[in-house]
Design goal:
0% strand; 2 helices
């Protein structure tokens, strides 16, 4: 890959965000880090949920 063609970054350029946008990145980054750490647990929980014999009971509309 040449210097002029770089792979896209996973993180947005924070300089392109307003001060409010930059402030909001902290909780978003924390949520993303949690999701990455818990990926296997979430996958297992989904599999257990999908393997249930009875479908979930429909909820009444609010």
């Amino acid at each position: 890959m040449t210097a002029s063609r770089r792979a896209p970054s996973r993180r947005p350029c924070r300089r392109a965000l307003t001060a409010l946008g930059q402030e909001r990145m902290e909780p978003i980054d924390m949520l993303a880090a949690w999701a990455l750490r818990r990926r296997e647990a979430v996958t297992q929980a989904r599999a257990a949920y999908d393997a249930r014999e009875e479908p979930p009971t429909p909820r009444e509309p609010r």
